[in-house]
Amino acid sequence: MGRWICCLCSRVADPLMLLLVLALGCNPSTAAAAAAAAAASPSVPHVKPSYSFGRTFLGLDKCNACIGTSICKKFFKEEIRFDTWLSSHLKLPPSSLLSYSGNYTDDAKSWRLVDITRLTSKYQHDRADKRICTSLLRTRSCSLERALRRTQRFQKWLRAKRLTPDLVQGLSSPLLRCPSQRLLDRIVRRYAEVPDAGSIYMDHLTDRDKLRLLYTLAVNSHPILLQIFPDVEGWPFPRYLGSCGRLLVSASTRPLRDFFGAAPEVAADLALQLLAVLRSMATNDLNYFFYFTHVDAGTFGVFSNGHLFIRDASMLGVIDKEEGSQLIDGQQEYKDIFSCLTVDCQSAFVSCDSIRDQHSLIMVCQDLLPKLLSGKFLPPVQESIDAFLRRCARGLGDGSGASEAMAELAGILKPLRSCDSRFAYRYPDCRYSDKY
Predict the structure, then answer these.
(1) CA distance 249 to 112
(2) Angle formed by the axes of helices 264-282 and 359-367, to 10°?
(3) Which helix (H) or strand (E) holds 210?
(4) Which of 49, 109, 244, 328 has the smallest count of CB within 10 Å of its CB?
């Protein structure tokens, strides 16, 4: 029944009709009558909220590519519920919004806030997906799954026993610009949307599993990073709760932009946490070097306990310091439809050799720390902070490495933060140890 529902939904254009079809047992004629009655009656009785994710909300959807994934099961069991657009009007969320507040449960008893995110980049998802039909089939609409299955790249994936660098060459995700075999094995071994995960070989992936993984890597690697570097192992990401196509559910955070006007002690605390995240991304036990290709006010987020995390990892690149990149010369320049789902096909890739250890710190000094720290403190402390940020934004031309520069700024900021219940992630430990 679930598979038939997902196929039917791709043919229903009106959101009201779509949700009534789902609510009334997928009988189109009954749904049509109900829709007409609802439109004619000025006093529609309040009905149970519908939490259908909708066909047009997924991306890799037409017809049933998401059936069987954890997120699809959660939506159909109503264990993920949207919070701010509800059912008396029976509308899907507006396409202009990329993130929605919702609720999530594992046991149908306790609920927690989540972010339900539509994964996009330069192009809105509907425009990008139409490119698939026009590029591959020369039609205005099509089954995305069927069209992508015909591509040369996916046929290579079907034959492959192991995810190797040649299978991801030309994908626009920063995660895959400098791929090592060790990193690709980690992606397969920790891919959470298949049973029997744990092997570096792809024997346990069905054809549809491979298509989902390829499509996700091509569209936005954020959910993959949350799976392969999970928060429970100490990585600074929110917890992954499920994804398919362009839809992702993860633990809720407030974007850093909400704290640009925060009190001085809060701003100092967040800036210190941001420096700690950058430090862990550059130096860690697994010997991966993480770098940002872009940062903005929504890149980082803050949990209710005051803990700062990377909220959007889509612009995060990874360099394996043990193995290095295993793409041979010219492979990065390969382009196909999977290279163009979220960026202009003519976009040039950044060379892995051009990334310095100060790369991410300089971006943060240019775009985030001034908004967080400017005008917050008394002189001469503010003057010291401003002088450091100007020097850092220009590239740390004095020869300082990233570690030395971060230690310098941390030394200025640490005396400025306080220890109280607003900082629950380190309170009351901070009362007994300078470590916190």
Answers:
(1) 12
(2) 160
(3) helix 207-219
(4) 109
Angle made by CA atoms 19, 137, 142, in degrees to the nearest 5: 10
Q: Is 345 exposed, middle or buried (0-12, 13-18, 19+ CB in 10 A)?
A: middle
Q: Give the full edge-to-edge strand order of the sheet including 80-82.
A: 80-82, 99-104, 112-118, 247-251, 240-244
Decide if 62 contacts 10 (C-beta within 8 A).
yes
d(CA 372, CA 377) in angstroms, rounded, equals: 11
The DSSP 8-state label assigned to residue 151 in this structure reads S
Whether pTM exceeds 0.90: no
Lowest mean pLDDT among 59-63, 156-160, 201-205, 316-320: 59-63
Q: For residue 213, how far is the Cα from the chain centroid?
A: 14
Whole-number Å distance between alpha carbons of 138 and 129: 13
Residue 59: closest CA among 13, 128, 2: 128
**Euclidean distance between CA atoms 189 and 191, whole angstroms:** 6
Amino acid at 366: Q
> Residue 77: how many CB atoms within 10 A of its CB?
11
Question: Beta strand pairing status for 254-255 and 300-302?
Answer: antiparallel
E-only strand ranges, 160-307: 240-244, 247-251, 254-255, 288-292, 300-302
Can you tell me the distance from the alpha carbon of 265 to that of 285, in angstroms, rounded to the nearest whole number?
31
- Structure token pair of residue 72: 């699809």
CA-wise closest residue to 66 among 55, 82, 77: 55
* CB environment 42-74: b (16+ within 10 A), e (fewer): eeeeeeeebbbbbbbbbbbbbbbbbbbbbbbeb
pLDDT in tens, 59-96: 444 335 566 677 777 776 777 776 554 644 434 555 55
CA-based torsion, 283, 332, 123, 133: positive or negative: negative
Which residue type is seen at 372? L
- Quick one: tokens of 363? 């971006």
Q: Which residue type, as a one-letter code, is found at position 240? A: Y
**Spatial distance between the Cα atoms of 259 and 247, rounded to a whole number of angstroms:** 27
Instruction: Report CA 277 to chain centroid distance, whole Å.
Output: 17
For 362-373, write each residue's pLDDT tens digit. Answer: 999 999 999 999
